[in-house]
Give the backbone structure.
Amino acid sequence: MKRTSASIIAVLLVLLAPTLVLGQEYGADLREAASITNTENSANYAISGFSESSTLSPNFVLPMGSKAELRGSGFLQLNIPASGTTKLLGYDIQLLKFTLALKQPRAGMDSFVLQAGRFDFADPSSYIVSAPVDAVSLEFAYPGATFTFGAAYTGLLFLATSPFTISMADQARSSADSELFGSRRLLGSARLDLPRLYGQSLSLSALVQNDLNKQSDFIATGSTNFKADGGGALDTQYFGFTLAGSIKSLSYSTFLTYGSGRILSWLPDSAAPGGHSYQLAPISSVLAGFDLQYPIALLNGTAGFRFIFASGDADATGPVEGNAASTYKRFTPLTRSTLGVVFSPYLANLVFIQASASEKDLFLAGLTGSAKLMTFLRPSSGPISEPGLKAGGTSAYLGSEVDITALYGIFSDLDVSCSIGAFIPGGAFDSDYVGSKLQMAATLAITLHM
Amino acid sequence: MRIPLALIFAMVAATFPAFAQSNAAVDELLAQEKAQIGSSAYMVLNAGGLIGEDATLDDAFATLKAKGWLADARSAEAPILLDEYCLLVMRGLGLKGGVMYSLFPGLRYGYRELVARGIVNASGGPKRAIAGDEALRILRLALDLKGGTQ
């Protein structure tokens, strides 16, 4: 409790100090949300859960001359979960970014942008990593190309809100809940954006992630004692390209990423007493996809189609690490992407297909609505990040989901949003699993921008 | 992109009931690198119908002070700050605001209201002086808003 209070005060001080001292633009959003979930399986019809959350998000903007500024935002969230007994408090700084932007700092250079602090660190597709982290980014824009280099550290995000839980050690740290900060990982990125040519733009990128967590948290390489809940250091690298642009009214973006790295694996070892030992194995994985958007003038909206393929590993023994073959083929994203309102697994051992439509001002000025139809498949019979799959099952069909969301601005500073989703699990799920027939979720939220 | 001054003049002046009397005031405001309180007040109060067609800058400034919309220590020649101008526009044109403006109709929420409606560029913050052409552009957009659904 003492640690929590101290942390909250620290967060508030960081966010409020510039505002209080310098009196610049500041504000806060207050969001009240209520959610209800409903699950059904063959034996158990309706298990409903009602949860609430209240979130206060203070923010400020501090101009520093014409070329620099400091921006900040954070959140303090009180969750009252479905059980209704334990209130959970979440808090952290989401943004504390210093930006220096120089136009034509020297001959032959268009611009230079420096960003430092805590801000959203994302790869070009945003499917590998997209989260607020403590980072530095340098962008050098020349007429012929733009180079962007970044470095980030995840170890100062609070444990309760850190989205980086990609290894067994990360999961153990979360479960133990004995430390203040989350997983310690160092990220490095490099990106090359080429100039638009006939409306098309190409970018090449590389992302490197090094596990800096304590060695004592890991199983040592060469160990011959199997530990179901143990793992090792997980280092990964990603190399890819993104091509985006438009052909007449059709906008598109497509990406291909090759994932490499090394992972601690339980592999056959003739020299080991039990015939197996922990060894490092290479990772060789793929993430690919495309996104299409087409405007529908009649409805003042857009129709879209999205396809994402994330490779899987049929030999994997668990959704996190669990490699038992010479090469680990499961793609390992660093953060979770939001896919469906109900079902949103990690982009690992997954094929995601989505058709969507969105409209503005259809029934009412200020009302924006969207509908999505999604199908989830798994490319290999290996595990996915979500529980409930049939043990030993080989069905590729994970299920389909329909989502409807709406946002309405009642006033300039008050809006209400609603999202409803229904996921119908497929043959890959165990029929005894809670929610194997139907999973539903609905959220109603109202936000006041103060 | 800077909008040509002549175009701004035509757009704003066309919205005024007393086109001829306003010409000199529009010219004067457009020429100001930092819009002055007196000129700004004249344009907004005139557009809102709060001063007569034959009113002068002094009349506008006096009206502003009489309504208590300005700190007494400020002179008509002093530059007006963005948040002050936003509140002047909100009050002068009788625009309705959101929840926070309705509860606290002051500088802060007058400024934020016009930012939320896309009329004001928030990049420089609320405490910056504005140029005459920017003041006229804000007024024109606010008049468009008033003429629409608000």
Observations:
- DSSP finds eight helices and no strands in chain B.
- The two ends of chain B are 26 Å apart (CA to CA).
